[in-house]
């Protein structure tokens, strides 16, 4: 045996190379012969078991350190790394700010993002998926989950940074949600919270400072309750105490000081809220007027505040503060962008389908000007450019089809209710219908004028606040109505027995959840009204909510809630809206020079024209005033934005005996060849009844 010259491994003497390190075993003396050194007597060659010290020395010779990885700083965080948080919408429901279910979306953004970067990214994400609903970025505020504005961190005054907020929050990024909310909703919520703070402010009663003053405090607490502090400064009442000791004087002074501080604080909070609203929102003065009215009532109220006192009442508004219909609609119409258009390619036999295709486009924007093109059977358009006439006719025909011919509504023609159709609900046709009504109003088209007062109350104030009566069922033609009203003929003692014996009535009561033991006439009336409410409103609540969602575009629903009296005239039925006087007030005449022969001919024609309008309004001919207006403008009634009709005369076409109309410009040209009223009336009636539709006049 021998040892390797390099690594000292044991080798046979015949080995020329070491199998362990691979070194040649030739000597370096130039002789070229291999001289293996004999194995030394060392620790390696002995068969004895190594001790701990020897084993440690042996292991220390190995280069183990060369294979150890360099330690990394695991605490260092890459701020450029992308993380995923959630963003959604938050709305004010009249009581609290609540996030909308199903509207949250994941948002990928850098950890180092500040408030502005997060706001821009969240707005872009939500706008891409809710283009029909979302407005400009200036109308929104970025909120935490508790409806506070994202500006600084929650536990310090440092500016908001995403990764710092995550450390404070202590939850993964995937469980962090931010919300976008309209500034108007946030302001209304803050004003409501301010009002609640005013109404629920603690009593200005002194506290016991020592046991010796306990009796004096009890005397103060037995006094009548004081007025609640308000924004209006009033003379502070003085508490009369029987014992005129210094203690009572001191307590009285403390009370006045406390009340003064609370009043000043409330005034400061109200001023802040007012400044915030004036800075961020235009044309919302009516809400502040309402709050001022409530605060003035509070300052003169000697009783304790109750639930009825904090309810906002729209019926008590001053008429001077309520704008006109034209003013409200004109304000809404200022949102229309006339530099961009939204095209509606319409087939007369499929009006709603044509509208749905346009509304469901990814780039649909309700603020863009509406341009309608009617298509005939071969696909060519009936007109070239929509200057207003096709749009008005489209909305007129479409709303009539939806309100009176579709399964979405039921009831009398003058009092329509929303019915629940499962297929229409799943396809969101109620939302689309609400959008079309809002579009028609803002873009110069007609309005429904046929919704029931009960449905209007549900849209403005919610289904829970609706209180129907038996009178609301008068114009309903349905078998369920007869089943419900059959309770009127039953005595209170026999109501429960009658319900159990009538299978159809029992089913309706179970569906409405209205069963209760009946002992008095009030109990019977309660069950009847509950069944009526279920039949007219509650069973269609999900469809009503979807309809409300459609009305939210362009801020129409917000205006309805702000000015319910104004919009009730637009949405609900009112008789005699179109009269001869109203019609003639919208007319202007393009006359020839006074004294000329043409002027004399025009006078005779205008006499025929005036009699024709009177006959149409009184039913003395085959058409009505709304047919004449449809022929001229494409509307069955004057839209809220108004129309101006110009009457001309066909002097250059003396052989023409029929009228001509330009619905885009709202111009009517009357024939001048008629010498008798009978021939004028017959030809006018024939032309109007046989020329329905743009491009067919």
From TrEMBL:
Signal peptide: none annotated. One of its GO terms (biological process) is protein polyubiquitination. Residues 242-255 have a biased composition (Polar residues). Keywords: Ligase, Transferase, Ubl conjugation pathway. Residues 23-49, 199-264 are annotated as: Disordered. Its EC number is 2.3.2.26. The keyword Transferase applies. It holds the Pfam family HECT. InterPro entries: E3A/B/C-like, HECT_dom, Hect_E3_ubiquitin_ligase. It comes from the Eukaryota. GO terms for molecular function: ligase activity; ubiquitin protein ligase activity. Residues 357-697 form the HECT domain. It is an enzyme of class 2 (transferase). It catalyses: S-ubiquitinyl-[E2 ubiquitin-conjugating enzyme]-L-cysteine + [acceptor protein]-L-lysine = [E2 ubiquitin-conjugating enzyme]-L-cysteine + N(6)-ubiquitinyl-[acceptor protein]-L-lysine. This is HECT-type E3 ubiquitin transferase. It comes from Paramuricea clavata (Red gorgonian).
